[in-house]
Amino acid sequence: MKKLIVFLAIFTFVGMGYAQENKKLTEEEALKMLEDCKARVTDLNNQIDRLNAKLDQLKAEKARKQGQINSLKKEIEDLKAEIAKYPSEYTVVKGDYLAKIAAMRYIYNNAKAWPRIYRANRDLIKDPNLIYPGWTLKIPHGLVKNFEVIPGDYLWKIAGFSWIYNNPRMWTKIYEANKDQIKDPDLIHPGQELVIPRD
């Protein structure tokens, strides 16, 4: 139906042009004009078909993207629910020690990560081998982008922490990112705030 309307519109438009010039059409001119109009209509119909096909592709692509968005939204919600299980604080009970706490499933599930708890609670913990029931410890989570040096730290050790790179050989990455304050890679000082590259 749309194609017929397009054809009639073109034919009428062209015919009106001839009428305004007060010309009488011969049969041959009328047939020629009719063939030209048919050719234009065919061309326009082909363009319409191509555009409709493109539109269908875009609609399908939109539906696919929307499906991906919905899937990602669900994944984000699931991750938020999972993250909510991980406490930001932990109250020490009798029999606890830092490695035991770090090994708990919703703490770090890794006993070797106990220094992270110690470092976050140095205002409370003077001796990492001695903690007391009733203490409320901060439990940091997430990627560390800045790292405060404490006594006993060195680049190899820092890079080896499970929450940093879990690979001591990556110490050079920390060194390269902090050359402005580290003159000798074998010598870092307590209180220095190091950048931990994550790219």
Protein model, in words:
The chain has 199 residues and is mostly helical. It has 3 domains: 2-83; 87-141, Membrane-bound Lytic Murein Transglycosylase D, Chain A; 143-199, LysM domain (Membrane-bound Lytic Murein Transglycosylase D, Chain A, Roll), CATH 3.10.350. Helix content is 51%, strand content 6%. The protein is built from 6 helices and 4 strands; from the N terminus they run ααβααββααβ. It has helices at 2-20, 27-83, 98-103, 114-120, 155-160, 171-177; strands at residues 89-91, 136-138, 146-148, 193-195. It has a two-stranded antiparallel ribbon with strand order 1-2. It has a two-stranded antiparallel sheet with strand order 3-4. The longest helix is centred in the first third of the chain and has 57 residues, at 27-83. The radius of gyration is 37 Å and the shape is elongated. The two termini are 59 Å apart.
Shape, per Cα inertia axes: elongated
Number of E strands? 4
Mean of pLDDT: 88
The number of helical runs is 6
Question: Which percent range fits the helix content?
Answer: 40-55%
Give, in order, the helices and strands: HHEHHEEHHE
The count of domains is 3
Keyword list:
mainly alpha; Membrane-bound Lytic Murein Transglycosylase D, Chain A; two-stranded antiparallel ribbon; 6% strand
